[in-house]
Amino acid sequence: MSMLTVTPQLDDLGPAPTPRPLTRRRGRGDRFFSGLMLTSGGIVLLVMSAVGLFLAIESVPAFQRTGLRFFTTSAWQPSTGEFGVAAIIGFTVLIATIAVAVAVPVALGTALFITEVAPSWMRSGLVAMVDLMAAVPSVVYGVWGARVLQPHTIGLAEWLANWLGWIPLFTVDGHDPSNPLSSSAVFFASSFTAGVVVSMMVIPIQCSVMREVFSQVPPGEREGAFALGSTRWGMITVVSLPFGRGGIIGGTMLGLGRALGETIAVVLIISPRFDFSFNILETGSNSVSALIALRFVEASDFDLSALMAAGFTLFMMTLVVNFIASAFVARSRSGASSEA
Amino acid sequence: MTTTIESDRELWGPAATSEVNRAVETTFLPRHPANAAAPQPRPIGRFGRDDVLTMGGAAASALATTLLLFGRLSTLDGAIGFVIVLLLTFIVIYAMLTALTNDVPAIVDKVMAVLMSSTALLAGSALAWVVASTVWNGRTALTKVNLYVEDMSLAGPLEPLDIGGIAHAIVGTLVIITIALVLTVPLGILCAVFLNETHGRFTGLVRTIVTAMTALPSILAGLFILATWILILGFPRSGLAAALAVSIMMWPIIIRSGDVVLRLVPGSLREASAALGAPSWRTVWHVVLPTARSGLSTSVILGVARGIGETAPVLLTSGVAASMNTNPTENSMMSLSLFTYEAIRSPQQNMVARGFASAAVLMILVLTLFTLARVLGGRGPGRLTKRQVRRATARSKRDLARFEPNSTGATS
Fold this sequence. Notes:
The structure holds two protein chains of two kinds. By secondary structure, chain A is mostly helical. Helix content of chain A is 65%, strand content 1%. A two-stranded antiparallel sheet of chain A has the order 1-2. In chain A, β1 (76-77) and β2 form a beta hairpin. The longest helix of chain A is centred in the C-terminal third of the chain and has 33 residues, at 301-333. Chain B has three domains: 49-137, no CATH class; 167-381, MetI-like fold (Orthogonal Bundle), CATH 1.10.3720.10; 384-412. Chain B has 18 helices and no strands. Chain B is flat, with a radius of gyration of 33 Å. The two termini of chain B are 42 Å apart. The interface between A and B is large, with 99 and 103 residues.
């Protein structure tokens, strides 16, 4: 019971203690195993960087021929040296933007519905549904878009052109709203239809990222909002959406990356054109991947180099978008966006 | 015992009561006006009789209004237009009905709940539309047996659906995906283990690159194989080249999802294994991988589902073939997705029907794989099925009998 503390004198203990060396002796099996793992990582790294590297090397002749005009020319005649990606990149971005604009509200609504609104018995089924949307091959979406959906979007496009035609985005050359017999052929194969179909492939990607983030909302903050008398929507606006901001932005960007690179569905719907136009309801559009898919068959060596140059441009675009996206998603996962 | 009760009585006895009384005298409690109703807790997420009736009423009146007005007031026509008008009418009427009994936040809440449900419904019905319309449009071709056993070598685009089939595409798809699996699964899982077992700058770099590559446009994977394997190395266009391109697509998917699954293996299992003196490769082989087996098979199946549906890489690296080709090293090899793409671009109705049929076959293949993945991957790492539990129990009983021959399986 005495309160006396005895501190040991260092002198009593002899020489000053040195830290115990902690080393690990690794057996032959382990050295082999870690070598194997390192090799596998190295191979993956090598192959993945080779994709970018070889696209760059192969596109050198095309870039030598055109220089920076490659990014400002709106034509594709490699044999005459008159080719560039200005219009094609424009259309690619246009289709991807339409796809993301259609997909984000649906993906966000579905993600919120799954995490906040749906009764618990419905949840796993809805998650499976979203995963299933991601698993359906893009060619199936393309077939559906070109043969099944297209006749139905024509009516919508016509209505938009009639009522909102004064907005340059919805203007359609050769369409006269006052003429009831005007042909609806001007609405076929448009960027709009392509964008709507690509959005079907973007929705599941965005939705699963957003759902993941919303499911990580701290239950304390959620219950705090409810305890203060908030409605469910009130809780979503003050807790879920701010917390999931990084995931929403990251998921949107990931979807954008996918939309930029989509090939087959776009090829099946659009009819290619090389003069850029903002009128999304009009016939004709293009995309880098569609260009490659349609042109590589009868391509000469130089044509192929030009296609590689376009592919390399697309590669850099998707790479940048994906890096930004994964940075956003990674930051939101670590909880940095919650101001707790 | 007694002492505690007494001390309690001391605490909460008359002295304590007077303390409480004094506190009441000096604290101002908020007072509600006598005629105001006591505030009710807000019901959250409850879907009661009122909600059902309001929603049903709003739906009925919206349907009636839309049927009455559709095509007269708005020029929007077609099925999509009808759905849009119906939804907008429903939301307006529903908001008006809820406004009868609720305050503004509650109205906003209910309307937003309806909007969120309708986006989920929209996504679901779009998916159902895709699946159903594909099967429906391919039905005439799907019901013919020759579709599954013949190739297109004898059938021109004008031939009736009784001649020709997609056997070559089915075989080609299976050959390509098998080669891709052999290439990607060992290396993919090894790399996923690498990402999990080691930490450092190099691991971070590999993870970043793999993440960025999961969204590599599929046509670029095909273009890469075309540039290197076919143009620089001089190999012919073949099923093997297509398999290489598909592998580049599948690889990051398997690594990424494998990485996520392996991360779920409890660290205590690893530590227990290490504490028993196992070298790390034995820990991985006997503890980590078996624990994550169901999740890893899910990630492989997801990779396969993605790879099997890729069209663009096959188009660039293999090309179109009309006849059966089982040799992956020479000549073009058809895949189901490529056949669908070619057939649907044809102006001939019979070819289009075949395209829908092969799209349906492809989709059924993918959906089967996907269901398999859900069934296998439904359990977390280390969760056993009933049969596995029974087997583990039996093994444990045998061990007990071996260690203690006298107690014959006393435990169960």
